[in-house]
From TrEMBL:
It comes from Nonlabens dokdonensis (strain DSM 17205 / KCTC 12402 / DSW-6). PROSITE patterns: CB (PS51900), TYR_RECOMBINASE (PS51898). Residues 120-212 form the Core-binding (CB) domain. SUPFAM superfamilies: DNA breaking-rejoining enzymes. The lineage of its organism: Bacteria, Pseudomonadati, Bacteroidota, Flavobacteriia, Flavobacteriales. The keyword Ligase does not apply. Belongs to the 'phage' integrase family. This is Integrase. InterPro entries: CB, DNA_brk_join_enz, Integrase-like_cat_sf, Integrase_catalytic, Integrase_recombinase_N, SAM-like_dom, Tyrosine_recombinase_XerCD. Keywords: DNA integration, DNA recombination, DNA-binding. CDD domains: INTN1_C_like (cd01185). GO terms for molecular function: DNA binding. One of its GO terms (biological process) is DNA integration. Residues 233-421 form the Tyr recombinase domain.
Length: 427
């Protein structure tokens, strides 16, 4: 709970005193409310301990002090919940909430406090988490949630509510290994992949974790090692330089051409779709007669400068020196399958997935697997094979360790061996 919550005494007639509760939570922002408890002498109040002295003239001191202890604890808890649910709470909401706890609320106070202090269950937290971190930085990333993460959370919340509708309400206390097994089994019955199911578990754990940190529950079963998100490696393709050239050479109608141009900017710069799909003319700069793209990455906020090759420059020239305008990710992904087929990228790629708890292998045409993320993976892999130092590629891609980088690119052991063989040590 932010702010300072205290008791103090106010003198009334005949040197008697009435006990007030005060809540200060900002410069010049203080709420003062009478508790309804009085003492016989102002001098009986212990200012340091903020309690009534245990002396003869105050024969009810122990009862009053116990009441003050209980109410202080309850008010602290309610204020914590208020701050968690609404960072822009008002003085009136604070007053109504405290008066309700003290048993001194009017009908209006009760209505305001009830609305303000609704029950914080798991469903409520899912909604709050999505709404709050859409605009505010998360404690882990220090940035608001990305659009892709928000879409994932909304999908997971929808499925969780479907599960609750079929099986009965699920709250914080119910998130244990028994729930985990039943929920995973329920998702498997709908023929979902392990990675899709794992995404549901990951998001549910994130919501549970933040609710735990706010004191809404004390259930830590979800932190057990066994309560893990199912995961598996799936085929992640990249496009070779020759395949990118085939896409570049295509004559396409306006809509497909627009998607192709955005994709190729990503494939030749390594930018994430959130960046290459939101470039402006201000991001294109000239340094010593050469064109560069310079921007603060949306995900990491780090400023990067990337040289433009001749193909990227030609794409900009098509748009009068501007980048292509943004386009919905799902529309680009839809178009990329058509573009890949037209470019005859028809290699068969076996894809193995666990669907409904069973491992299934199915061949796909490579063009059916092309997405906006293929652009970034293609850049990293092709740059690595071309001999660009790994450190320089990682500076653009944002990978923090070489181990993660090598698991990301599509380079075989032979590719890596060839690259090592170029070192002077082996000459």
């Amino acid at each position: 709970m932010k702010g300072s919550l205290n008791y103090r005494i106010k003198e009334i007639k005949d040197s008697r005193g009435t006990i007030l509760i005060t809540y200060s939570y900002g410069r010049g922002t203080e709420v003062v409310i009478a508790t309804g408890k009085k003492i016989n002498q102002v001098s009986s109040w212990n200012k340091e301990k903020q309690r009534v002295r245990n002396i003869a003239i105050e024969n009810n001191s122990s009862i009053i002090n116990q009441w003050l202890n209980n109410k202080l604890s309850e008010v602290q808890q309610q204020l914590t919940q208020l701050q968690f649910s609404n960072e822009n709470f008002t003085n009136q909401e604070v007053k109504s909430l405290i008066k309700k706890v003290l048993g001194r609320a009017t009908k209006k106070d009760i209505a305001i406090a009830t609305d303000t202090n609704e029950i914080k269950n798991l469903k409520w937290c899912y909604d709050w988490y999505i709404k709050y971190y859409t605009k505010n930085p998360t404690p882990s990333t220090k940035h608001p949630l990305a659009n892709s993460t928000l879409r994932s959370l909304k999908t997971c919340k929808k499925k969780f509510l479907e599960y609750c509708k079929e099986t009965g309400d699920v709250d914080f206390k119910d998130i244990n290994m028994d729930f985990y097994e039943k929920f995973v089994e329920w998702l498997q019955a709908q023929n979902y992949s392990n990675n899709y199911i794992g995404n549901h578990i990951k998001n549910l754990k994130a919501v549970m974790n933040y609710a735990l940190s706010r004191g809404y529950h004390n259930n830590i079963d979800f932190k057990k090692r066994e309560f893990a998100k199912p995961t598996e490696k799936v085929a992640k393709i990249f496009l070779k330089e020759t395949e990118l050239q085939s896409i570049f050479n295509l004559q396409l109608p306006k809509g497909l051409s627009h998607s192709r141009d955005l994709f190729l900017i990503g494939a030749y710069t390594g930018l994430r779709v959130s960046d290459f799909n939101n470039l402006t003319k201000e991001n294109i700069i000239d340094i010593d007669g050469s064109k560069f793209i310079q921007l603060a990455q949306k995900k990491t906020k780090e400023i990067i400068t990337i040289p433009c090759n001749s193909k990227v420059i030609r794409i900009f020239e098509k748009y009068d020196g501007n980048p292509p305008s943004p386009k919905l990710d799902q529309h680009i992904n839809r178009d990329l399958k058509i573009i890949g087929a037209k470019a005859k990228i028809k290699e068969k790629v076996p894809v193995t997935k666990t669907l409904g708890g069973k491992e299934v292998t199915k061949p796909y045409f490579k063009y059916d697997l092309i997405t906006t993320h293929t652009a970034r993976r293609s850049f990293c892999t092709n740059a690595y094979k071309a001999g660009i130092p790994t450190f320089d590629i990682m500076a653009i891609s944002g990978h923090k360790t070489e181990k993660v980088f090598y698991s990301y690119i599509r380079a075989t052991n032979v590719d890596k061996a060839k690259k090592i063989a170029e070192h002077s040590f082996f000459k």
